[in-house]
Amino acid sequence: MKKSIFKHTSTWALLLLMSAAGCKSDMDFLTEKPKTFYTVDNAFATSSQVDQVLVSIYSQLRDLWANPSEEAWIFVFRGNGTDMFDVPSIRRGNSFNNYGNINADHGHFNNAYSTWYQMISKANLALYASELPQIAWSTPEEKAYTVAQARFFRAFAYRNLGELFGGVPIVTEITTTPRYDFKRATRVETYQFAIDELLAIENDLPEITVKGGRLVRGAAQHNLAELYLALGIQLAADGRAADAQTAYGESVKFANKVIDGGTYSLMNTRFGTRQNEAQGNVYWDLFQEGNVNYQDGNRECIWAIQIDYAAYRAEDGKSKLPYSRTYSPVFRDGAKDHLTGTGVDVGGRGISQIMPTMYTRDEIYADKWADDMRNSDIVFRRIFNGNVASSPYYGVPVPWSVMYEGSADPTTNTNNRSLCYPVSCKIATDKYTGLADGENMSNLFRDDYFIRLSETILLRAEAKQRMGNKPGAAADINLLRDRAQCTYKVSAADMDDNFNMILDERARELVYEECRWNTLLRMGGTIATTRIKQYAYWPEAQATLTFNYNLWPIPQGVIDTNKDEPLAQNEGWIR
User: Fold this and answer.
1) From which residue to which does the signal peptide run (predicted)?
2) How many CB atoms lie within 10 A of CB 213?
3) Could you tell me the sign of the dihedral formed by the alpha carbons of 158, 159, 160, 161, in that order?
4) In terms of Cα–Cα distance, which of 483, 412, 498 is closest to 83?
5) Which tens digits make up the pLDDT trace of 463-493?
6) 33 pLDDT exceeds 70?
């Protein structure tokens, strides 16, 4: 028994001794010192690792633009719910024009808002890492270009946030602890921050690059033209007319650098991989595989996302443009007695996630506007030969009256019209890559435009009109109409004060390219709500859009979690 007692006494004595020794430095004892624990300060060792942060932003932008995962909120970002796009009858659950269901809690707003802040966070990380002492740069120019790309992305994100949400918190540092006290800048301050960022790095971006996809100076100058235009519109709304005119002048100045600088020019003659095919035209050439990049000889391309079929097959399943699937019509339902199936003659394998409104497909080409290369059948296909053997139109064009009005039931006809529509050469092709490998005409494997010179020209036209120079604005629009071989050329008298001429020409030139929400909301006033009510396909918009707005709401979740600093909600969304 004594032996047992001694044994336990000795054990407790040893434990007390260890405890006493541990009291020497409790914090030292408790502090974890792992051998391989990464922090922001030690995670980067080389300049190529910093560049990988930028590559992640390029990848994020590609996925945002092409939407390979078919996310509903990205279809909204690309235009669903505007005057140009709506949803077909089979997608009514994804409608974005029923304002009985759209409020500040809507997830689409939160997704858009958070996506741009994710990009800002990555840009801030790249900027922080670029200054770490252990990073060795091969040349000062390498570092300058890395910094320039990061600051461009930060400016690009704030430009989008400013256009969609107005003034937002400006975050320029990485955050390692939770914060609940972010303060909203004004919309003017948000635009100005983005302008200052781009001005600082304009000359650190190269004029051109050897390979496509990386940022160039023209991308910054184009965005400066848009930002100064947006700034001017907001200054005018704030009652600062003289400052607005100065901003418009700066917009024209930066647009001039792109348009007249000698690097870029409209493609006015056939070019590229299919230029010798009799069926095409120069506008069609712009959207053929192998023709998109500046490096392909396309002097109209300022910045393009990169799609690579070999990478898609090997490892990158998102390296695709699923446009034929997501944007093409569903003739197999809307005109099933005459047109059905998958094929190059019906726009590939369409499931129609969003569809062009009647405004986009027909109204902008009515009457004197019809004679336009962009309305030709090779560009905007309107002729579809019946492919159902029992159809009286087998092998010959199916009339649109039959597709649109093929039923005695008006509701069925309305649904049919939403499923059957012209097919743009931007979303389909007659030569699909990968069919031998099992691809099914859902995807295109060409690069795609982020910025094309045509949009720069349209921005300059708008800035000129806002300066009071309607003849100059008309002349700019006619640069595009001349290339499109339009019979009707616009004049100063066509440049209406509600900017319908500008918006119509943007629709003709940039369908499936521009982010229409950015354009409509940037223009301010009641332009967005007026046009949505006028052109939305389904009647819900006119019935439920009973208030005016020119900004999306700040997501309610953002307001609620920023508990230490009140964030004001945008006008029209508190109801």
Assistant:
1) 1-23
2) 18
3) positive
4) 498
5) 999 999 999 999 999 999 999 999 999 999 9
6) no
